[in-house]
Every structure is written in structure tokens, then in C-alpha cells.
Amino acid sequence: MELLFNVANTSMDLILSGVVFYTLLGGFIGTLTGALPGLGPSASLALFIPMTFSFDPIVGMVFLCNIYQGTMYGGRITSILANIPGDNPAIVTCFEGYPMAQKGRAGPAMGISGISSFCGGIVGLTGLMFFAGPISNFAIRFGPPEYFGLMIFALSCIGILSGKSAIKGIAMAALGLLCATVGHDFVSGSIRMTYGIVELVEGIDLIPVSLGAFAISQVMTFMEEKQFKVDFIKSKLTLGNIYPSIEELLRSRWPIVRGALTGFFVGVLPGAGGTPATFISYAMEKKVSKTRDKFGTGQVEGLAAPEAANNSSEGGALIPLLTLGVPGSGGTAILLGGLMIWGIRPGPMLFQQNPEFIWYIISGLLIGNIGLLVLNVGFIPLFVTILKLVQPYLFTTITVLCLTGVYAYSFSFFAAWVMLAFGVIGYFAKKLGYPMAPLVLGLVLGPRTENSLRQSLMMSQGSLSIFIQSPIAATLIGMGLILMIFPTARYFFDKVKLSFNK
Amino acid sequence: MKKIYAERIFSLFLMALAVSSYFQTMELRNQGGVTGLMTSPAFFPQWVAVLLFVCSGVPLVKTFFWATEESETMAFPPPQTIIRLFSFLAIIGAALLIIPFIGWLGAQFILVFVLEMLFEGRKWKHSLAVSLGGVAVIYIVFELALGIPLPRGFLE
Predict the structure, then answer these.
(1) How many domains are contained in chain A?
(2) pLDDT for res A368
(3) What residues make up the domain containing B41?
(4) CB contact under 8 A, A171 and B25
(5) How far off is chain B from A34, nearest CA to CA, in Å?
């Protein structure tokens, strides 16, 4: 009852204070940017975070979280209407959504996916409400060794789950950690790895790196085509024909439940996020379906489950972010960066000292979810029209937004050069299968990882046994090392076995 | 360039970065106080550099011993496209360099105009209209709505 009271109270506050405008605006922007192929939640958040620095922290956070939530909805628009996923989690939506559109059922596909996304979002936020408190109470007992273990586990997870190659993911995480050590060391006062560049004494900031790695590199990918164009399927999308039939809704109900629960628990894992949630959910739905032979031809079950999983994973991903201060994905890493810029340190102490901040975020997301359902079911033709108008100017729009945004963040031209440098690195890295999310996560978690390590070693007078003496730290570090070593060891073992067999 | 060669170059780049970082922090090893190296400012970056070196070295080794069919595919688009991409970056760089002289809005106007004419292939009137519109949006959103002062160049 107390949980519902907190939600009701903070929701009323948001509505009466006018902050609800920012929830809807964030949702609208997130849907549009999520629909643009290649941008995704990380790039969308990186683009708009510089604009929020003058906002109140609650307003800014609610705005950004709704952008994040909106991208979960938006990714499906181009998946269904053009067979081009708006972001990675929307890849699976193409499997059933586009065939439905090809059969003239684009409207009901948009309707089913919107309703599934809404239900998934509600499940995710409900899970966040119920589990966040107990997890943060447990995390109060964490000291420096436990936090170090948690960082190692989180970095290992995101390293191996972010891309096809685990070793490349861990390499990017290591690069991010290394970038985090550049500049002034706050413990000893030493200057590290600035290579004589004065501006690097302040370190390498998250915003220029995120904008470069996600947005500028994506613009460069867009520019490989002389003219970037998304061909939307010709389909009549009006208010009258976007609703699925009763039979389709009934067929979707259990896939939505299964997808939402899968998405939530997968989303809680650091590094997992929406993409693995949608793939796991789709595979599971195909396995349990009586019509699995028809998957790939426009089955509503195959559309509903991953959409629910995608949106539910958002609530799951917010749990480690808010309760432990460990982001679960590139997008939540940027949200963490935003919180730190506002001077808010997420973790168990946030629940103790400032619990209403968490409730405002949850309420903002709940209100935003309702708004997104209305926008994404009733106003789809508007989004399609806007996308068709904007896409010829996509390169220049994103470029100008990135440049102005990075300057607005730091009032420094050097940050713009850093952004361009990481744009180039990001472009070439993505071509070779190196994921960018671990780089950003390493940059965000680097200072905390190092501080936890040094504090632990100071406590133990330099002895590493402190990490073994703590069962939580030992378990987390052990799991992290297994995650790091196992995929590569198995790869080499398989290769050697193959060579012997030949 | 084939993927196999691109992989090697990128791996070597990361390994060089790791080696450079390792040696850059050598002089800080003695600043750990009573607890020595473990709590010095060099310990963490050096271990991370070793991790980066090893993780970058594994893909490099794989290209020599376990190359796949995918390794023979082209990693990057044709040279003309790469030149186009670097021209794009050069134009942004030039825009950054002229900001202290003509201000942020002036530089963005020229940047958008050049990008629209050269990269989107639009006629000059259309590009002019887009540039003016873009500058107006930046001014309204950043200066007026968000209150972020943008450099004015000579006008300051």
C-alpha cells in the first residue's frame, strides 16, 4: 500500500507542477529518435543530455528516462514499416512485423506492438517498485571490496553481452577504464597520461565520448550511402485501422506476460538490456507456440512477446542503476553520467537519503508510458510523416546537434575535437565488431572501480586477500573472471580440437 | 582493405595505446606511500593496460592462425567513400577553427550550407534555406530557451 501511495503522491505532484509536459515531450522525442535507424537509446540520450543541464534534476531525469522509454517504442516503427530496425532491440520486430505489413496488416502490427510495449513497460516498472527497495537495503552492507567485485562483474557482463565477440567487448571495456584514468588523480594529486595536453588534466568526459562513439560514428555510417533513405511500405495507417482484432489480442496475452517477465529479469543483468531480452523472448515464444512453423510470416505472438520484453527490460535495467549505481547498458550509462553531473550519486544511500527522487522517476515513467501508448497507437501517421520529412536532413541535423550539444555541455572546443576523435574510433571499431557500450560503461565506472580497489587495498595494507575474505566480493570477482576467460578459452579449445580432428 | 588487415591494424593500435599508457605511468609507481605499488596511482592504469594489451592481442593472433572466410571480405567501403567521410570530418574541423572569428551561429550556417550543397547535392537556394532554418533553430533552442551563451566571434 505504501508503494502505491508513493506513486500516487508523486504522480499528482508531477501533474500539478507541469513536469508531465517533459514526460510527454521526452516520450515524443524518444519515439522519433528511436525510429531513426541506427541511433538507438544511447545516441538519443547523448544528443539531448546537454540540453538538460539547466533543468532541475528531477525534471531532467524524468525527461531523459522518457526519451529512453520512448526509444523502446520508436524502434519498431521502421522495423514494421520498412524492415529496417530503429535500434538493436527492434531487430526481432522485423521478423514478424514487416511480414504483417506486407500482408496489409501494418496498422494492427503497430497496434499490437504498442499495446505489448505498454504492458511490458508496466511490468518492468512494477518490478522496479517492488525490488528496488530490498536490493538497496541489501547493498547498504557493501563496502569497497564488494563494490570493486560488482564493478568487475558488471564490466565483464557488458563486455561479453554487448557484441558478437566477448574478447573485443572486454577490450573496449578496458579502453574505457583506461580513458577514465586520464587526468588528475584525486587521491595522490598526480597527473596521468595527458601526453602534455593541458585540457586532458580535467580528464576525458562522458558526453563527448558518447556523442562521438554513438552519434558521429552513426552519421559516418549513414554517409556511406550517397543519400540516406528509408522506404516505408505503402500502407494506410489511420485511427480506424490500427487496432488489432479481438482474436489477435487474445492470442497475444500470454506471449505478452512471458515476454514481459523474461525482459525484466534479463534487463536486471548488467550488460544485458533490450537486445538479448528480445531475442530470448522470441526464441522462447517460437519454442512454446503451437504454430511455430508459421513464425517469420507475420505471427502476432512473435511480435507481441519481444516488444513486451524490450520495454520491460528498461525497468529491469533501472534497478542496478538506481540501487547499486551500476548501469546495465550504454543508455543507462549515459543516464548515470547525467545523474553525476547533477551531483546525484545513485546507489543504496540514494534510497536512504532521497527516496522521493526515485519515486518521481518511477511516476514519471508510468505517466510517460501511458502517454506513449496514446502517441504510439493513435498518432503513428504523424510520426511516419515527420520521419519522411526529417530523413533528408538527418546528417546535418545530427551533426549540428552534436557540435552544439557538446559545446553547451563543456563550453570547450577541445570537447568537440574529442568527440570527433571518438567518432572516428567508433566508426572503425564498429566495422570490425568492437562494441561501443562497454567503452562508455568503462569510462563511467572507471573512477569508482579504481577508488574501490584502492580503498580496499588501503584497508588491507596492500593485501589482495581482502577480496577473498568477503564472500560477496569473492563471488562477484570470480563470476566476472569466469565470464571474461570462459568464452575465449572455449573458442581456443574448440579451434585446437578442430585442428587435431583434421 | 580486407578485414584481416584492418583487424591487425586496429589491434596493433590498441596494443600500442596499452604499451604507451603502461610506460607513461611508470614514474608514479613509487607514490603509493606505506602500502607501496598497490595503492599508487600507477597500479590500476597499468593493470588495465595489460588487460587491454592481452584482449587486443587475441584478435591479432586469431587473424594469423584462425582466419575465417569473413576475414577475406572488405572491412570498409571503397576509397572514394572513405575520402568522402574524411572530407566530412575535415569540414567540421574547419568549422570549429573559424568559430572564434565569426561566432558559433556564423560557423554553423556555413557548415550546414556546405554539407547540404556538397554531401546532399542540393541546389544553393535550398541549402541556403536549410542553413537559415538550422541556425534559427539553434538560436531559439540553445540561446533563448536554454540560456546557453554561444560564442559570437568578432561581435563579442
Answers:
(1) 1
(2) 92
(3) 3-72
(4) no
(5) 21
Q: What would the grid cell of residue A496 be?
A: 585446437
Same domain for B100 and B51: no
Q: In this structure, is residue A441 part of a structural domain?
A: no
- ipTM for the predicted complex comes to 0.91
Per-residue pLDDT tens over the stretch A28-43: 999 988 888 777 788 8
Q: Apex CA A224: angle with CA A222 and CA A228, to 5°?
A: 45
Amino acid at B6: A
Domain C-terminal end among B72, B92, B115: B72
* Domain total of chain B: 2
Rounded to whole angstroms, the Cα distance separating A395 from A412 reads 23
Q: Which domain holds residue A408?
A: 2-141+239-413
3-state helix, strand, coil in chain B (%, to 5): 80, 0, 20
Interface of A with B in 304-363 (CB under 8 A): none
Residues B24 and B87 in one domain: no
**B92 and B123 share a domain?**
yes
| pTM for the structure as a whole | 0.84
A105: in domain: yes
Nearest to A54 among B44, B52, B147 (CB): B147
Cα(A214)–Cα(A235) distance, integer angstroms: 32
Encoded amino acid at A278, one letter: T
Examine residue A310 and state whether it is found in any structural domain, yes or no: yes
State the residue for C-alpha cell 533501472. A318
Task: Spell out the residues 6+ positions from residue B64 whose beta carbon is closer than 8 angstroms to its own.
Answer: none
Q: What is the DSSP string of A83-101?
A: S--SSGGGHHHHHHHHHHH
Interface test mutation site (partner B, options A53, A59, A393, A488, max chain B beta carbons within 10 A): A393
A334 closest CA partner among A142, A75, A132, A60: A60
Question: Closest approach of chain B CAs to the CA of A300, in angstroms?
Answer: 35
- Check whether residue B148 and residue B85 sit in a common domain: yes
Are B83 and B147 contained in the same domain? yes
- C-alpha to C-alpha distance for A30 and B146, rounded to whole angstroms: 19
Cβ of B134 within 8 Å of Cβ of A397? The answer is yes
Interface test with chain B among A181, A216, A227, by most B beta carbons within 10 Å: A181
Instruction: For residues A206-228, give the mean pLDDT.
Output: 82
Mark whether B52 and B87 lie in a shared domain: no
Q: Which of B19, B49, B72 is the last residue of a domain?
A: B72
Lowest average pLDDT, out of A85-89, A147-151, A320-324, B79-83, goes to A85-89
Of B35, B44, B51, the CB nearest to A450: B44
Residue A493 lies in a domain: no
Smallest CA-to-CA distance from A22 within A57, A47, A46 is with: A57
One domain, residues B67 and B83: no
Using CA atoms, how far residue A432 sits from A219, A343, A422, B9, in Å, is 17, 37, 15, 11
Nearest to A175 among B32, B35, B52 (CB): B52
